[in-house]
Amino acid sequence: MLFDNDKFLTKMAKAFEDSKTSKTVYLTMKRHSYTTKKIKAAEEASEKASGDAVMGADDKDKEYPTLVRLNSGTKTKLSTLVQPQDLDRFMVQYTNIIKINMDNLKKKERKKAAKAKKATA
């Protein structure tokens, strides 16, 4: 489901609290482009037909929104679309929630060979 940014952050915090028992939380971020594959293929075909394959300056400088997705188990799927002007505020809140919930991580298990090697050195 697509939520607004603040609602997504509160649901994200709740998903992390729920994940303390046994769930895994996956977070993904990617640039969101409004063009679909069909639209992009049609644009490329028209550029080839007209012979005008030069990229405009406005395409290079265009700012895209960011799509943030959260997947927790099979039932919880959340997403939000962060506009470029709101990205800094969103990232501050996003990182604060991540930092608060870092205690849920498991410690890395080290190999016995590495411990034995340090003991002899």
TrEMBL record:
Component of a fungal signal recognition particle (SRP) complex that consists of a 7SL RNA molecule (scR1) and at least six protein subunits: SRP72, SRP68, SRP54, SEC65, SRP21 and SRP14. InterPro entries: Signal_recog_particle_SRP14 (IPR003210), Signal_recog_particle_SRP9/14 (IPR009018). This is Signal recognition particle subunit SRP14. It comes from the Eukaryota. It is found in: Cytoplasm. It comes from Linnemannia schmuckeri. GO terms for molecular function: 7S RNA binding; endoplasmic reticulum signal peptide binding. One of its GO terms (cellular component) is signal recognition particle, endoplasmic reticulum targeting. The keyword Cytoplasm applies. Keywords: Cytoplasm, Ribonucleoprotein, RNA-binding, Signal recognition particle. Belongs to the SRP14 family. The gene is SRP14. Its main location: cytoplasm. Pfam families: SRP14. GO terms for biological process: SRP-dependent cotranslational protein targeting to membrane. Component of the signal recognition particle (SRP) complex, a ribonucleoprotein complex that mediates the cotranslational targeting of secretory and membrane proteins to the endoplasmic reticulum (ER).
